[in-house]
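Lecture 7 notes: from sequence to structure.
We start with the chain below.
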Amino acid sequence: MSHHTASPEEFHRIITDFMAGNGTRDPERFNSFLDPTLVSCSAEDQTLRISIRTQRRMENPRGGLHGGIAASLADYAMGVLTLGLCGGSIPSTVSLSLDYIRPVPPDAVLVMEAVCLKAGKTIVHLTAYGWLEKAPDQAVIAASGTYYIP
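Predicted C-alpha cells for the same chain:
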C-alpha cells in the first residue's frame, strides 16, 4: 500500500483508541448506538472481531434484528479493520453487500469478524461474518465490502 502500514502495536493502538474515543463513543454519532465491544484484533492475520448485544430498539417489526443494524455492524467492523491496517487513515465505504442467512433474535450477543482479503494502494477488499455467541458454528450474516483510503 502507498499509505502508511501500521506495525502490529500501532494497529492495535489505532483500533482500541478509535473504539474507545469519539469514533465510537460520541453520543451524537451513530456508532455509539451500536455500542460495539472489541473482542480481538490481529495485524498479522488482518482480522478484527467485535460484538454487540442486540436491544429492543434495534428490532424490525418481526422482532428480529433490523437488517440496517446488521449492515452497519458489518460496515463498522470492516471499516475499523481498514483504519487499523492503514495506519489511521479514515476509509470511505465504496461498496457493501450483505446476505442475511438467519434471523438474529432479541437480546442476543452478535459477533462480527472482518477479514482483509487484499489491501491495495487506495482500495481494500474485505469480508465479514456474523454469528450468535451461543451458536458460533452457525453464520447469521455474510458481508463483503470495498473501502477507499484517501
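Points to note: The helical segments are 8-20, 22-25, 31-34, 67-85. The radius of gyration is 15 Å.
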